[in-house]
Design brief:
With about 210 residues, the protein is an alpha+beta fold. Helix content is about 20%, strand content about 20%. A 6-stranded antiparallel beta sheet has the order 1-2-6-5-4-3, with helices on one face. Helix 1 packs across helix 3 and helix 2 packs across helix 3. The longest helix has 22 residues.
Length: about 210
């Protein structure tokens, strides 16, 4: 008599792929940091109308809290290195160019506008200092707020920086204005989250006439 042994063969199933999140419009990015004007600007500099969702912690509210936690009035030395507010990626797989938005606090001499700008940048009359090029922009504003202890005597100086690794194609002046519009939108959203007096000196709309 022959005996047939049947072995049990263990098998491991392939893990289920993580469902891809649905694309979102620009207005849904970075916790509401992108205004109606900035939506058009972002579409221009990114070449896309839909984007990957940004993380739940990638918001102006989270960034503002970090400013509050790190602010040190009368300090002459930076206590905060640049941090990401959010990173934006077009939803189109063929267009994966990153747009990076960062922020940090400035102190002492570094907080004083010096007028120096990189090649291709133009100054804009917004906040304490602002400039924009085709692939990079920054805006610095001063904030006095009840959320920032000691800021009445020594305001917080916050800088928002937007950068792209690749220069987008298009009209130079239009791209520069789009960068200025986007950095203004994020900065204004930050100033409002911080409850800055007079919105940190920022107007409701960006001033797009270069200085």
């Amino acid at each position: 008599m022959s005996v047939v042994l049947v072995g049990l063969v263990g098998c491991s199933e392939e893990p289920e792929p993580t469902p891809k999140e649905k694309p979102v419009a620009a207005a849904g990015l970075c916790g509401g940091a992108v205004s109606a004007d900035a939506t058009k600007a972002l579409q221009l500099i990114s070449g896309s109308e839909e984007f990957e969702p940004t993380g739940k912690g990638s918001t102006t509210a989270s960034a503002a809290q970090k400013v509050i936690d790190n602010f040190s009035p009368l300090s002459e030395n930076p206590s905060m290195t640049p941090e990401d507010l959010c990173r934006i990626y077009p939803a189109d797989e063929s267009n994966r160019e990153e747009i990076r938005i960062q922020f940090h606090l400035l102190y002492g001499k570094s907080a004083k506008p010096d007028g120096d700008m990189a090649s291709g940048q133009r100054a804009f009359r917004m906040g304490e200092e602002a400039s924009a090029g085709t692939d990079r922009s920054f805006l610095q504003f001063a904030c006095t707020s009840d959320k920032l202890s000691g800021s009445a005597e020594s305001p917080a100086h916050v800088e928002v920086v937007i950068s792209q690794q690749k220069v987008p194609e298009g009209d130079t002046e239009e791209l520069r204005s789009a960068q200025a519009t986007l950095v203004h939108s994020v900065s204004l959203a930050m100033a409002r989250q911080l409850n800055c007096a007079d919105d940190g000196g920022l107007e409701e709309r960006p001033a797009l006439k270069p200085e």
